[in-house]
Specification:
The complex is a heterodimer of chains A (about 240) and B (about 425).
Chain A: E1 5-14, E2 17-27, E3 32-36, H1 43-50, E4 58-63, E5 66-67, H2 72-76, E6 79-82, H3 94-105, H4 109-123, H5 138-151, E7 156-160, H6 168-183, E8 187-191, H7 195-201, E9 204-209, E10 212-217, H8 219-225, H9 231-241
Parallel strand pairs in A: 3-8, 3-9, 6-7, 7-8
Antiparallel strand pairs in A: 1-2, 1-4, 4-5, 9-10
Helix pairs in contact in A: 3-4, 3-5, 4-5
Chain B: H1 2-15, H2 18-46, E1 49-55, H3 60-71, E2 74-78, H4 84-91, E3 95-99, H5 103-108, E4 116-119, H6 130-154, H7 160-164, E5 172-175, E6 178-181, H8 184-195, H9 197-222, H10 226-230, H11 236-278, H12 284-290, H13 296-321, H14 327-333, H15 335-350, H16 358-366, H17 370-380, H18 384-410, H19 413-416
Parallel strand pairs in B: 1-2, 1-3
Antiparallel strand pairs in B: 3-4, 5-6
Helix pairs in contact in B: 1-11, 2-11, 3-6, 9-11, 9-13, 9-14, 9-15, 11-13, 13-17, 13-18, 17-18
The chains are: A alpha/beta (about 240), B alpha/beta (about 425).
Bound molecules: adenosine-5'-triphosphate (ATP) and magnesium ion.
Chain lengths: ~240, ~425
């Protein structure tokens, strides 16, 4: 089967700074791939390149067999992106926001309404969807944004720290949701600082530091390879000693 | 198309908020209220103006003079000779006329006589000091009445009109190729009255729309909605043009509101100043003959010019807005645009841009917005070629800046670009 996402030698520099230095990874349909790594490692930069809002400085990037550097517009039809720090239009109500976002993806009104219905359910906001988004709490906004991303049934969901700012129960719910959608065939590329979450959610993990993927594999493989009891230990060993490897 | 409509609706929802609309509503109500106030001053003015009259002569010509003042719309209150201020206080008037001793005899002896007038200034507004101008006008017509009386007595055979004003100028003006019977003042008065509001409205519309579009872009960055939007399957061009269209529409509605308020205000002022302006109002037939009435085609051209100007402003603003990190910094970034607009605006208020010295003129003409301010006068001159040129010139600017905007928004500069923080 063709991978949903295939990156090779992917790199990004901001002026002098090399944020991502040639990384290779791929995500299969229905697979959840997690990027973990210290702050400033290049996770968000990588996700932004996959989301077609940053152009790579070098390397190959294919999404659903489409060259993302040559045809970003076509890639955008297949993906949904939840940025690390995202906001919403404060003057819109929750439901109006979902309707707006759905209209950008749907080809007709029926498809749009189906998306909105899914989004409303996923958001779990119920009656509050009728309120202006400006009145939402941080976690409520995050859930609305996540609902927006998954309601369009993308081939690839790009989630940058999806559960940041959510309480324990909401975070659990979101993880179940993402797992369920992956089971239905949606590929997921996510980043996270929560190792429990990563162990629970992801099929494969890539550890990134200083713009390089230092290790990747299933959580089990990584633990075995580094003789660690949990992912946190793996992370600590790879990320600190990583530069020399 | 559907996606564009969705974007446009979102932009409008963001722009049209109570806070955003309130200023418009307040301005319209305020202007309307001012207009009402102005027209309510009118009845007061219609009443005769009381004037104190000190007659130290008592002769026939003095009587003729006083009677003529009364006929010219003054309420003449005769008072005993006194120091002027005291006399006015006693007569409860703000104006006084003093006919000197020996007035009638002096005229008969062939010596022009001086009549002293005193006007107490009340505030420094024209409407507040109308008693002064009315008095002066009355003295002029009373002068004619005295002249008629003199003619009657000394040359009974001659028609009084010939004695008073044997030569009457018949004024003709030429505008472009057309000519008509009217005075230069009349034509200038009319055109100025018709065109002063145009630059004001233009200025407001263009400023409003460009500020709106720049802060719309900056707000997307500030409230962190831009990243999500850019990853959606809509073209950069439609994102940019939806913003421009929304801002343009709101600005036009705002301009319409301002014009409505302004018209009410102007109608009020005109009511208030009519008497003073009557003499200088050009007859309708003359304006028609001179082609100074704008017809439908002229208004279409004016509309096109305005549209092109808005497009230029919006396309520049959308590029400048891309550099901003917050709505507030967007306002500061618009400074070059504001200057580009202020220069022709200020200049056109006071002088004829066409008459500027060579180099300066070229520089001013290179500013796209200059052509917006020139369009009105050019149409009155019947110079449609200049107007078309202005439209084409502005369109070229708009196309250039839309191309720049498309490039800026298609690259990742829109997310990474920041002024003053270069790495
Ligand atoms: N717009 C930008 N301009 C210049 N440098 C940038 C920009 N965005 C990110 N960087 C730099 O690129 C590097 C990688 O940043 P990135 O945001 O990808 O890290 P991250 O792994 O997502 O970190 P975190 O865990 O803190 O979210 C950092 O050194 C950062 O300073
Ligand atoms: Mg990050």
């Amino acid at each position: 089967m063709q991978p949903v996402l295939e990156a090779s030698g992917l790199a990004k520099r901001y002026g002098q700074l090399e944020a991502v230095r040639g990384i290779d990874f791929s995500v299969e349909p229905g697979e959840v791939f997690a990027l973990i790594g210290p702050n400033g490692a290049g996770k968000t930069t990588t996700l932004r390149m996959v989301a077609t809002i940053l152009t790579p400085s070098a390397g190959e990037l294919q999404v659903c067999g489409i060259d993302a550097r040559k045809e970003p517009a076509r890639v955008r039809e297949r993906i949904a992106y939840l940025p690390e720090e995202a906001g919403v239009y404060k003057n819109l109500t929750g439901i109006a926001y979902l309707r707006f976002a759905a209209a950008l993806f749907a080809d007709d009104a029926r498809e749009r309404d189906a998306m909105v219905e899914r989004g409303a359910e996923v958001s779990g906001l119920g009656e509050r969807l009728r309120d202006k988004v400006g009145t939402y709490s941080k976690g409520m906004t995050r859930k609305l944004l996540l609902a927006r991303a998954v309601m369009v049934r993308p081939d690839l969901a790009i989630l940058d720290e999806p559960t940041s700012g959510l309480d324990v129960l909401n975070a659990l719910e979101v993880r179940e949701l993402v797992r369920g959608l992956a089971r239905e065939g949606m590929a997921v590329l996510l980043s996270s600082h929560n190792m429990l979450e990563v162990e629970f959610l992801s099929d494969r993990v890539g550890i990134i530091a200083n713009g390089r993927i230092l290790a990747s594999g299933t959580a089990e493989e990584l633990k075995r390879a580094h003789g660690a009891r949990n992912l946190e230990e793996v992370f600590a060993r790879v990320a600190t000693g990583g530069g020399a490897e | 198309m559907n996606r564009f409509v969705a974007l446009l609706k979102k932009e409008l929802a963001e722009l049209v908020t109570v806070q955003a609309l309130l200023p418009f509503v307040i301005v319209v109500i305020a202007f309307g209220g001012l207009g009402q106030l102005m027209s309510s001053v009118v009845p007061e003015r219609e009443a005769t103006v009381p004037v104190a009259l000190v007659d130290r002569d008592g002769g026939a010509y003095a009587h003729a003079f006083a009677a003529a003042l009364g006929q010219a719309g003054l309420k003449v209150v005769a008072v005993q000779p006194d120091e002027p201020q005291a006399a006015m206080r006693r007569a409860e008037t703000l104006a006084l006329v003093e006919i000197p001793k020996g007035f009638s005899a002096g005229i008969d002896a062939g010596q022009p006589q001086r009549v002293a007038t005193w006007v107490k200034v009340r505030g420094f507004s024209f409407l507040g000091n109308e008693h002064g101008t009315r008095l002066l006008a009355a003295v002029e017509s009373a002068n004619a009445a005295v002249a008629a009386a003199v003619a009657q007595k000394h040359a009974p055979g001659t028609a009084p009109a010939v004695m008073q004003r044997p030569v009457v100028p018949e004024q003709h003006v030429i505008v472009g190729e057309r000519s008509a019977q009217a005075s230069v003042e009349q034509v200038l008065g009319f055109v100025t009255q018709q065109t002063t509001f145009i630059p004001v409205v233009l200025f407001i519309v263009i400023m409003f729309s460009s500020q709106m579009v720049a802060s719309a872009v900056a707000t997307e960055k500030e409230s962190k909605t831009l990243e999500t939007l850019l990853s959606c399957p809509v073209s950069r061009a439609s994102i940019v043009s939806a913003k421009m269209l929304a801002a343009g529409l709101v600005a036009l509605v705002g301009a319409a509101a301002y014009m409505l308020g302004m018209r009410q205000y102007m109608a009020g002022i005109e009511g208030g100043l009519r008497a003073g302006m009557e003499a200088s109002a050009a007859p309708e037939a003359a304006l028609q003959a001179l082609g100074l009435r704008l017809d439908a085609a002229d208004y279409v051209l004016l509309g096109l010019t305005l549209f092109a100007g808005i497009l230029v402003a919006l396309s520049i603003a959308v590029v400048l807005g891309a550099f901003a990190e917050s709505a507030r910094s967007a306002q500061a970034l618009l400074t070059p645009l504001v200057v580009m607009m202020l220069v022709p605006y200020m200049l056109s208020l006071f002088l004829d841009l066409q008459a500027l010295p060579g180099g300066v003129r070229t520089a001013v003409m290179a500013i796209p917005f200059t052509h917006v301010f020139l369009a009105g006068p050019a149409l009155f001159m019947g110079d449609t070629r200049a107007v078309w040129f202005g439209i084409a010139y502005q369109a070229a600017w708009a196309v250039a800046f839309i191309a720049v905007a498309a490039r800026v928004y298609a690259s990742d500069r829109i997310l990474t670009m920041r002024l003053g923080r270069r790495r």
